[in-house]
Design goal:
Chain lengths: 267, 276
Amino acid sequence: MQQDIPTDAAIELTGVEKTFGRQKVLRNVNLSIAAGKTTVIVGGSGQGKSVILKHMLGLVRPDRGAVKVFGQDLAKAGKKELNQIRMQFGVLFQNAALFDSMTVFDNVALPLRERTKLTETEIRAKVREKLDLMDLIESDGKYPAQLSGGMKKRVGLARALVLHPKVVFFDEPTTGLDVSRSNEIYRLFHKTQSQLNYTAVIVSHDVPKIFKLADYVALLAEGQIQGVMSPEAFQLSDHPLIRRYVVETMGPIYSSAKEEAALYEPA
Amino acid sequence: MSFRARRGRWRKLGIGKPFEKLGDSCLSFLEQYGRMGIFLFSCLYNLVKPPYPVFPVIRQAHFIGVRSVFVILFTGAFTGMVLGLQGYYTLNKFGSEGLLGSAVALSLIRELGPVMTALMVVGRAGSAICAEIGIMRNSEQIDALECMAIDPYKYLLAPKFLAGVIAVPLLTCIFNVVGILGGYLVGVVMLDVNGGTFFQGMYASVEWQDVQMGVVKSLIFGLLIIWIASAKGYFLHLEKTGGFGAEGVSRTTTDAVVLSSVSILVWDYLISAIML
């Protein structure tokens, strides 16, 4: 497998296998997520991208293989250690997974209330700061059912970032959003990452737009990671499966900006 | 013939099928009850482990208890009234309507109070708890809690257990008192049984053991209701019989209500048999 990643990995999956019922979803997944960088996992629907994410979060245990987060094996971690690790995680779920019987404010405040010993005034200030960052300050008293899809994702992002995590996971951050809404999410992602400097793991369908954010792109196909490389290398790769994926999602001929310019210039 | 070939042939002939099915259902039976047991243990463990969140318990007790009071008052009054009515006509045949007070009180305190209250709480709060947790499971809210390093057992479930164990016995007390007053209304006010005899019979026949039995029953029923309702909702994604999404929630809630009601009646018999 091709993998040109520096050694300081935040998360490392080695030889992970997982079977659900009779379906073998992950065959032999080897993947390391570089600390401080953005890694995007792409792949067809139903290939198990979200399953990989759930392994990293410790929600699912691998049948075989190991998942290490900051060098610590999740399978060997007790409940306390697992919680300690998860304290450094922020997750934006596919459907935002907001607590629908709580207001936006309480949703974002919950991690602070449950996981820290801050006073209510401090919590109020921190939540307002995050909501402000997401342009949600007027909606803090609303319930999730009263929000649009894009706003829900923004609340989810605010909640994921409120504890200043070291690693943030994004499960399909823009699925179901229109172009301007997804651009808004990308803009916020970019803004918050440069502010908070977190490691990002993104599972996405939004090719090629997502490549602009990525430091590394990994393709999951046939239950394995077929290669982790920079977006440019990914798009030019000779690997048959990566080639096929690029062709399927981006059209039959890939042309870089340079080539494209040449195409349109009069001969 | 090799084992594999033989197994293949058995499969083709369908000989192994019933055994396969039997084994499969045995395994899933064990799995399900093991899961329920571990679930109960985790909830109770988190109940005794500090810190003790007070506010969530009060909120849940309000939901399970205070908001059930009206239903309990209503059903309690009518149960007592019908007991007074039926008891009067039965006892009248033997000329012993003086025993009406003790008949009403004993049947309420020992049996009807705990059982009827529990059934009412199942219908009102049990179904709501199951649906609430089921929807949280369905929409990944429970996963979200876990990812935030918030233990769902501690945060979500333990307060419900404590609230159930507090609320159901109290509701039972209300049911009993209102029921006795209902019996008094029909027996004494409407059917002219002597009021003094009504209460004197009650004092003479109701003993501490009867009250104790009622309290034990209502405590166990409270635990049982919350256990079944919340476990059914919590393990919604593992249910094999239910559908998915909204249908899954509705089926599981129905299952939870049926299972809790049946368990209450079964346990009622068991506790009576042990304590009498």
